[in-house]
Amino acid sequence: DGGITQSPKYLFRKEGQNVTLSCEQNLNHDAMYWYRQDPGQGLRLIYYSQIVNDFQKGDIAEGYSVSREKKESFPLTVTSAQKNPTAFYLCASSGVAGGYNEQFFGPGTRLTVL
Amino acid sequence: GENVEQHPSTLSVQEGDSAVIKCTYSDSASNYFPWYKQELGKRPQLIIDIRSNVGEKKDQRIAVTLNKTAKHFSLHITETQPEDSAVYFCAATSGAGGTSYGKLTFGQGTILTVHP
Question: Which of A23, A33, A35 shows the shortest CA–CA distance to A73?
């Protein structure tokens, strides 16, 4: 299960606070992704990055921000503009471009808003 | 964009029976279809995948079939065991090509319960 790590495992946030979730990978993958998982809704893409210093919005980017300053790291900030942030957040990475996009997932961070 | 529909949302079987989960996709350009298994509180893990140039792939008790014309693909698990109980997700890749990784769009998931 090594290769992609996320921290913390559990995170509690007060309303109005920004929080940052960490994602690190040592697989030398170019692409990294953030997903949000809610019960009964599968995985929804928040942001993704295919190369350092570049990233694109996914399907539910509002209220989130990311950066990709290093190949190994893709932190996600959940801002106060995200109205319902309580969820399980999964980071993933992929290293094969051109069509076969096997993604490897981190262990996840469970965020709860108090 | 791509849309993936997955059915059923829950599936209950007896140990030793077969289980089938079906997905449909909308983007005819999608060319990679993985299946992930997620146990409670854990990360999704790839169990099998299929590429658009093949119609069927098997790995021991698990098989996946793809019908590109109808734009649907299915996961088949034979001789189910209690440890197969988990949530299963299908996905499809769109927008990939050249140096692009594309995006995975996931189905809503199927909760599989295998009763001893």
Answer: A23
A101 closest CA partner among B114, B105, B73, B54:
B105
pLDDT tops 90 at residue B54: no
Count of CB pairs separated by less than 8 Å, A with B: 78
Tens-digit pLDDT profile for residues A39-84: 877 899 999 999 999 999 999 999 999 999 999 999 999 998 888 9
* CA neighbor of A86 nearest in space, from A103, A60, A109, A58: A109
For an interface test with B, which of A44, A101, A109 has the most B Cβ atoms less than 10 Å from its Cβ? A101
- pLDDT band per the 50, 70, 90 thresholds, residue B84: very high
Query: With contacts defined as CB-CB under 8 Å, which chain B residues touch A106?
Result: 43
Q: Which residue in the set A42, A104, A106 is minimally distant from B109, CB to CB?
A: A42
Minimal Cα–Cα distance from A79 to chain B, Å?
Answer: 24
